[in-house]
Amino acid sequence: MARNGFAEFLIARRAELRPSDVGLPEGGRRRTPGLRREEVAVRAGVSADYLARLEQGRDTNPSVAVIDALADALLLRGDDRQYFSMLALASGCNESRCPGRESAEEQVAATIETILRALQPTPAFVVGRKLNVLGWNQAWADFVAPLGLLDGHGQPNLAWYTFTHPAARRVLRNWEHAADTFTAALCRAKLHWPGDDSLRETIEALRRLPDFADRWKPHRVGSPGSGTLQLDHPVHGLVEVPFETLEADRDQSVVVWLIDRASTHAPGLRLVPNRAVNE
User: Fold this and answer.
1) Chain segment 60-103, per-residue pLDDT in tens
2) DSSP sequence for the chain
């Protein structure tokens, strides 16, 4: 039986922890790194056989009490703990019966298009569950066109650009961070829409790329929100681009780029004063 995401998370997290992390002595030879299954089972108050069934995907219906006990045993906090719980609750969902089995065509609502226009000349765009850029305003298009993000036909995709475009590693000065961020976003999407065939195909195609495959860790998803892109822009030079992500729909987000006035002289853009970026 194929392991589900919850089982993969259990195994990966157990391998990450050292005995000293949970107050156990480091001595003794171990066949594999991390905690032994028996050690986690004792900490969680479950049998090693039951934990084995969970890790092998043979039991897909853990109780809330067991989920909480395992989260405590594995020292999970914050976003990781929440994600672990969501994986557990979704572990019994067969993909052929999961919501979203039909890959919905992603369309930007008219109200969101109005918001994009209203934000002009602040660069803004809408991103979907596969990290396709579904819509944008002219300020964003003007700013990213020299980066190569609008090269080719069809919708731009943030992950494909980051991992495959020849200019990406040059213009994204914090490429590693951007790559981690977009991989984590696809991990979250896979949890929320496990039956979306189009999303699954996108992820499978990306996993053929070594840089993406190395980052594909279902137990590390982070959280969406704000951040900063560090760009070596072909036109504007070194630019710091703080951004804010606003949830517009259950599978779409509006991303607003708050470009620092001190770091670029891009004509026609609404720029954020330096003090506002740092507050």
Assistant:
1) 888 889 999 999 999 998 878 888 887 887 766 544 445 444 45
2) ----HHHHHHHHHHHH--GGGGT----S--SSSS--HHHHHHHHTS-HHHHHHHHTTS-----HHHHHHHHHHTT--HHHHHHHHHHHHHTT--TTTSTT-S-PPP---HHHHHHHHHHTTS-EEEE-TTSBEEEE-HHHHHHHGGGTTT-SSS--BHHHHHHH-TTHHHHBTTHHHHHHHHHHHHHHHHHH-TT-HHHHHHHHHHTTSHHHHHH--TT-----SEEEEEEEETTTEEEEEEEEEEEEETTEEEEEE--BGGG---TT---B-HHHHH-
